[in-house]
Fold:
Amino acid sequence: MTLRYRKRSQGRISKFSVDSSVGNGRILFSISLLILILTAAFGNGFVRADLDVGIVATRTVNVNIKLVFIGISESDVDVQYMSWSENLPKTINTQVIIGGKDTGVTSNVRYYYSFVQDGFKEKLISFLGSVAETGTLRNPAFTYYEREGKSLIQKYLNVSSTHYDANRVETWLRQNGEGFGGLLPDGWTLVFMYLPELPSATYESMRKYRTQDSTKNTTDVHPHYYSTVAVDEDLEYRLRYRQFMTAYGNRGRLWFVDLSAGPSFWSWRETLPLQVALEDQKIRLGSTYGRNWLTEYLADYAWGAVMNFVIPFPVYYPSYTTRYNIVVNILDDRTDAERKNTPIERTVNETKIREAFSELAPYAKTDVQILVRKTEDLPALRRIVRDNFEKLEDATFQGSIDVIDLRPVYYYIQNNLASFVSPVKKDETEFTIPVFAFVFSEKSFFSYSYKWDRASRDPERPSLLGIALGDIVLISINQWYFTRGDEVGQKGKGIGLSQTIIHETGHMIGLMHPHQYDDLGDFSYSAMGYFTNDYGFGQSDKDFLRHAHADQVILQTATNLQKAKMKLESRVESNEVKASIVRLVDRLKLAESECDKLNYTEAVARALEAKQTSLDILSQAEKLPEATAPLKEQIQTFIPIAFVVGITVGVCVALVIVKATSRRKHTANPHIF
Ligand SMILES: [Zn+2]
Structure:
């Protein structure tokens, strides 16, 4: 782990190199070269004398990842080829997704490979057999068409399938890690298993399904899946179709994917089983082509998992703070009857929201304020909402949906933010997150339009539930959602606000989805996913945020230290300050070593101690008297002289060159220059 310093360029060099390529290039180049030589000679002094020059500390961290292969033969994979940076992320410079800011942190990823013995695979298969459940379920990955009047309506097929409890499989893999040489103590373990011996979709049955008459409502395909249960903790609705996962993990630093499972409706492309793809494309494992094919295939799954869980990018800059202040404005736009039917207090849980964030960043205090208001008490806002309502009853291309155009509402709230939440802070003392949760009547949702399109993809989430816009969060929920169960055999059950508030607030403090780089990441434990509807943050969320905060404080400390050192150049020597610097460097090393061990909460604590020391040193340095005949003044007077001399000499030389050039142009050999 190293720290480097980068000084922001003053732009002079690039200006001259551009000039040198046009017109009298050579002449200007000669002049610039001379000036550069002269300024370079005094360059050190120049930087030392000017404390305003920007110092940006950067940091490189080592990341360890173990790739475990179960049911995949080492001879069918080219590990060296897989390690190539085109196949797997090697050196990643973390950038903020929105805004593009550089975090100053570069990750160097080291991969460890483990191909497990058949004995362990048999043990796993036997464990899976012991928890298997087989049944026939409506499966959205398999559809057929039913004629209703003039039109064909798409329906889900009943498909026989085998299911394994995803949580139990994850726990089993973590407890039986010795079978693949143990989990990495200071890194992540990603498990890739290929188990077509389990009841699985075969090429023949899949081909038959794909080519059969689209109105046929049966299939021979019998896939296997990993199942989870997703229940709304406010209004107890159980989300449907959550049995169809092909991967899971992220309650610890382990994630697994079963390449023989599926296909899952959530991502048909990502979950076409390997045995089906191999036969469809006539891949011969063991041949040169087959080895490269399988290596690239596995690398693609690994690449997504590495970026999703191990080195994710933040959506917004994840500023370190000692207090998250989540201010939730619930704006109830429903009818009185709806309000009576589902009291707003039942739809949101302040404790759950606070607990999620306290666990995520234990060193920060989380406050959650929930303010419920009726929109009739805010007539201007109510008018904006009503004016931007659109009923797309029988829209040919967009389906039937009631929408409120989100952008004008956002525009209004942004311009009137202080009347709702004040003050809004984003510093070390407080990070305020203003949340505006609209509760609409009947089936209305916010819609963030894109050109003509207002569509959505999940049958359980007909439109936009929430959006984290950087300055505020906008959420929409409605009475239909609160009573969702009534339509689908879960009478009296519905979906409340808490999960969406946790998810969107997570974005605001920097977290991205676990499926940002590969849909399969959504098959994991995380409040930042869509599929599993979790209320707690996953290991990847915790690691990411704590690590980002530790890095920030470490980099601020390193910058302070460098500033102090520059200041001390012109001050009398102080043994006290020297001792403080030694102490500071030790504390920084301690913070970095806690990062290496993935003890990020500890790392934040150590980094904060180091930062305090760096601030003490800065103020100590400020108080020290100037050294006699300060170097600073000498340099400051000398620099302009150096420039004048440089330019004069440069111009003289240039004139000589110009003369020489014009003379030689008339000689026999015009190509001498
Ligand atoms: Zn999201």
